[in-house]
Specification:
By secondary structure, the chain is an alpha+beta fold. It contains 4 helices and 4 strands, in the order H-E-H-H-E-E-E-H. Strands 2-1-3-4 form a 4-stranded mixed beta sheet. The protein is globular, with a radius of gyration of 15 Å.
């Protein structure tokens, strides 16, 4: 960095991502980012949700954030979706590609993808 103007440009560029993670939307997407989640590939999943929600113009409706250990390490990466008045949906063994599908079908369309949930996993 060479100047204050350059720092301001970086801040402006990253603003959408920060606001998205701190938003107050009706839907909360929480990605488990403890050591086990990161080792299993949670970082690309988090990035896919942040970028996808922003690209689809859902940032006023959906908040994307991260949390520590969710407690089901064998199913990492784990993503939980919370919606007001509905039961939490827990997606397991997520990938960036699955995240894009969840954005399209669940966050935009309102239909959880049953085959990606913990209920569909053999416990």
């Amino acid at each position: 960095m060479k100047s204050l103007a350059e720092l301001q440009a970086i801040k402006d560029k990253m603003k959408d991502k920060v606001v998205l993670r701190e938003g107050s939307g009706d839907i909360r997407v929480v990605v488990g980012m403890a050591t086990c989640g990161i080792a299993a590939g949670a970082r690309p999943v988090l990035n896919a949700f942040v970028e996808g929600v922003n690209a689809e113009g859902l940032s006023d409706k959906v908040t994307v954030s991260q949390t520590g250990c969710i407690g089901i390490c064998q199913f990492e990466p784990v993503v939980e979706v919370f919606e007001a008045g509905k039961e939490k949906v827990t997606y397991v063994k997520m990938t960036a590609e699955k995240a894009k599908e969840v954005i399209e079908k669940h966050l935009k369309g309102g239909n959880a993808i049953g085959e990606y949930t913990i209920a569909a996993s053999k416990l």
